[in-house]
Amino acid sequence: MWTCVSCGETENEDDYKFCFACGAAQPAAPEGAPEGRPGPPQTREISSAEPEAEQQPDAEEQEHGFKLPKALTSLGQRLRHAASAGDDHVINVRVSAEAQEAVELLLQAGRFDNPADAAGFFLEEGVKAQAELLWVIQEKLSEIERLRAELKGLGGSR
Questions:
Q1: Measured between alpha carbons, how far is 1 from 87 in angstroms, rounded to an integer?
Q2: How far apart are CA 38 and CA 124, in angstroms?
Q3: What is the CA 60 to chain-centroid distance, rounded?
Q4: Rounded to an integer, what distance in angstroms lies between the CA atom of residue 53 and that of residue 8?
Q5: What does the pLDDT look like over 135-155, one tens digit per residue?
Q6: What is the DSSP code string of 45-96?
Q7: Burial class (CB in 10 A: 0-12, 13-18, 19+), 72
Q8: pLDDT tens digits for 62-95?
Q9: Positive or negative, the Cα torsion across 4, 9, 14, 18?
Q10: DSSP 3-state assignment of 146?
Q11: Same-domain status, 56 and 134
Q12: Could you tell me the residue range of the domain that residue 58 belongs to?
């Protein structure tokens, strides 16, 4: 386990080179430090003579001295949010090229931020459009379950 110098997350496994919480890279071990164990947190000194605007790192810059894409820095937070969402269920689906193009159109139009939300939109609309079919299927399945229970009741007790 190692501690992230950016956000302080302590549950990061040694095998992974980025923080699960914020996406920051694992700090390099200082020379002479045992492999797999990070050294003390990296820090940088800021003189009080610097203007206030220069003291704040760029939105993409981390304390470890290099820039990460915004998508990577928020990856950990997005994963935690997705895992904690109670009403949302994640499923993997295969889609046709036509469906993929439709998802891409929604993304290009700015209607959704990511393919999962766009695909979810189409899935919800499909459920609404086929509500009558789904109702018929539910009725038939209920009837099948009733008939199975009836068959179990035939022939008396064992």
A1: 32
A2: 47
A3: 20
A4: 24
A5: 999 999 999 999 999 999 887
A6: ---TTS-HHHHSPPTTB-TTSSB--HHHHTHHHHHHHHHH-SS---------
A7: middle
A8: 455 555 555 555 566 666 666 665 567 788 889 9
A9: negative
A10: helix
A11: no
A12: 1-90
Residues 84 and 115 in one domain: no
**Counting beta carbons within 10 angstroms of the beta carbon of residue 112, is it exposed (0 to 12), middle (13 to 18) or buried (19 or more)?**
middle
Same domain for 10 and 76?
yes
This prediction's pTM: 0.42
Closest C-alpha to 119, from 136, 95, 137: 95
Of the residues 61, 90, 119, which one is the last residue of a structural domain?
90
Q: Do 27 and 78 lie in a common domain?
A: yes
Tokens read off for 102: 């439709």
Q: Residues 69, 75, 78, 80: is their CA dihedral positive or negative? A: negative
Is residue 70 located within the same domain as residue 53?
yes
